[in-house]
Write a sequence for this structure.
């Protein structure tokens, strides 16, 4: 534990004054595999960390990233949205992606349930397959929606890398999920 209000009154007061959704700017001071530290322009320094601001990996980008180093560099100026006061670490949890347009919403604007999509199978999981339908956008085809005849595993029907045609069955904007069906897609040999 970092120590409470009494040891770091200035820092505590600063963090308590922040509101969710507020924009904070600062400079990237350190990049770790688990996230990125940001020294904020406003507010005091952190007693232990290289910055009072911290961005976890999922909050760095809307895209799936291989490495935190792909997104930002040390010394880079960033503007982030404040998420919450992490009282355990005495830091401001920040989001970089919240300041950028969400590619899923833009994609969802252009499609409708019942529409046919082409995509590439990216991953097989026990309950179905993930299909990339656009840059950074994946949909899920549940096992029972893969084929007309029941199968035990997706590998009986498709492999990663296969190009396939699907029908959109559900667009969940809130959870940024796309449900697809191959069973309902008109096949070439019906």
């Amino acid at each position: 534990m970092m120590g409470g209000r009494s040891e770091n009154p200035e820092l505590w007061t600063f963090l308590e004054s922040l509101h969710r959704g507020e924009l904070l700017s600062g400079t990237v001071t350190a990049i770790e595999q688990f996230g990125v530290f940001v020294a904020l322009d406003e507010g005091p320094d952190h007693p232990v960390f290289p910055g009072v601001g911290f961005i976890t990996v999922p909050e760095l980008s809307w895209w799936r990233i291989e490495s935190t180093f792909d997104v930002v560099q040390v010394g880079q100026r960033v503007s982030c949205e404040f998420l919450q006061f992490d009282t355990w670490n005495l830091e401001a949890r920040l989001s970089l992606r919240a300041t950028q347009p969400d590619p899923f919403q833009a994609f969802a604007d252009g499609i409708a349930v019942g529409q046919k999509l082409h995509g590439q199978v990216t991953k097989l999981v026990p309950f179905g397959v993930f299909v990339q339908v656009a840059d950074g956008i994946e949909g899920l085809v549940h096992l029972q929606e893969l084929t007309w005849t029941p199968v035990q595993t997706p590998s009986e029907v498709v492999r990663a890398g296969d190009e396939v045609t699907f029908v959109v069955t559900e667009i969940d904007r809130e959870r940024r999920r796309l449900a697809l069906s191959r069973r309902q897609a008109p096949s070439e040999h019906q």
Summary: The chain has a mean pLDDT of 93. The chain has two domains: 9-99, 104-181. The first strand starts at residue 23 and ends at 32.
